[in-house]
Amino acid sequence: MHMAQEPREDILSALEFRYRRILTWASIVTLVCILDVSWSWTPSGEKLLGLFALLPLLLPYGFIPLRLHSRRLRSGLTLALAMGCALLIPGIHLLRFALTWDKRWWILGNLILGLLMQPVLIVIAAKTFFSMPNVRHGRVKLLGSLAYGFLLFGSFWSLYSPVPGYIRDNEHFAMRYLSDCAFSAFLDAHKHGGLYPTGFASLASSSKPKCMTNGPWVINPTNPTQGYFFEYSGSTSSSTVDGCTRFKSFTMTARPVVFARTGIRSFFVDEHMDIHATSENRPATAIDPIDSTLVFEHRPQ
Fold this sequence. Notes:
Layout: H1 9-15, H2 20-41, H3 47-53, H4 55-68, H5 73-101, H6 105-131, H7 138-159, H8 165-190, E1 199-200, E2 212-213, E3 228-241, E4 244-256, E5 266-270, E6 276-278
Helix pairs in contact: 2-4, 2-6, 4-5, 5-6, 5-7
């Protein structure tokens, strides 16, 4: 009595795997699109480092065609299914990011084309895989590939930001500068009977430099730093001390030089030292919400 042998995957490919070319081209197109977009978005001095960081994403799309055209058909199918599922939602988010911040036609074209390939991988790979006879450990291998795809998805989600990195850096600089200036004004007032200085020497010119405080850094108002304009002004009643006009309170604001390009939020601080922020194209005020994330050194997502 002869026992039925488990079908060989290379034989199954000729009988049941009718969409191998489609999956192969979908994988190759996705790989090229990822390379093109990542090369365009990575700074010139960090391109090789960027490609190295993307290897966990690039290698699977290269392995899919290799496995599909070898005797590891099921492995190629499960990998295609996993990668299609893992990259579908990130592709949508990256396309939205590009539509907001980078509308170059080749960037949008690559993102759209690469995104369209993911449903192809999912549908064709799933249809082919589940139409094949069950083999020992087949489902386990599928779960392993899906786990890898989930890991890639989680990595993307933990690193992704809807705002470009340089804008987040500009905003962090503006918040840090306002916080340090407010603290410098507090120290200056502590030395002068609780009265705040006329202004910061780095933000305005004055015929009385002694009436100004230097602040934490020097900023030339005609050359905005880190994409923001800063403005300090005294408020409430004033007093004259040693020939200098001093104030019982102050306000200081930071606004993007070009709204939505060098920054998407404006900030406000006063003698209470709480930083208020608004995403509207206007100066922030004391009634805007307080952003307390500076203490934790990160910007809310």
